[in-house]
């Protein structure tokens, strides 16, 4: 494994703490939500994009920084158990102090709330503030006391609901409004969201693979610690196929999601899924490089699928429908 070069300047330290390699976990479903909104309204609201993606960026900082703060003890345990087997840990390795991550993370959450409520009248989106608080609340329930569901066996499901449903809906609402003054509260192409939730669940399950031993020793209950590595990998791969099946059903059953849109997005996901399956047998417990390759192709399948699906949906609705 190549040696990790620790960040030195303040800018490098904060960039590291914000984990840019993981941003697509939120930005890809958020962009798909924007596409759902565009498909619903039949056009593009540029300010809806600015506000929705701005909220996503602030929530990303809130989640990443406070997650490190909440996991600091388990991260320190993993560092002691695998001194050369994991990447630098922001707090245990002294890259940034815990208090700094806590304060900046909370500040990002407050800014997200302020932006959302300020934009309600500006964009005529009366539910935007409350929806943002729900998204932030899902993370609070995920990793912070008193619930800490990521330590009690519910973290993966909560992540799937947040990344696969709440965040796309928030961005669809910022983009299109979704008829909040009437009984309409979902975009018409929302039949795609069950598949998005299943794919987000696959990503959430796989996230626990590299932390299996340290999480178990630290008392953290994840699907990987409860089921074991082999079953967690099988469930991850099954969720990808079930997600694609849910997209196919949406294309067949919903007049607002043509099967053509799903057919454009599916081949790329399946191509990467084959790579995931090929790497699966090597991604065993504590095989960190193999697990990294496994998760890389899984993320390429999921995040690439979201982007392709969103692009195809916008292209069909705005230019072809």
Walk me through this protein's architecture.
- This protein has 321 residues and is mostly helical.
- It is built from 13 helices and no strands.
- The chain has helices at 10-17, 24-41, 46-70, 72-81, 98-123, 128-143, 155-176, 193-207, 212-217, 223-227, 229-253, 259-280, 288-320.
- α2 runs parallel beside α7 (155-176), α8 (193-207) runs antiparallel to α11 (229-253) and α8 runs antiparallel to α13 (288-320).
- The longest helix is centred in the last third of the chain and has 33 residues, at 288-320.
- The radius of gyration is 20 Å and the shape is globular.
Kindly summarize this structure in a few lines.
72% of the residues lie in helices and 0% in strands. With 321 residues, the chain is mostly helical.
The total of beta strands comes to 0
How many distinct folded domains?
Answer: 2
Radius of gyration from CA coordinates: 20 Å
Helix content: over 70%
Structural class: mainly alpha
Mean pLDDT: 90
Strand content: under 5%
Question: What's the shape?
Answer: globular
Biggest sheet features? none
| SSE topology string | HHHHHHHHHHHHH
How far apart the termini lie comes to 50 Å
Which runs of at least 5 residues are low in confidence (pLDDT < 50)?
A: none
**Count of runs of 4 or more consecutive helical residues:** 13
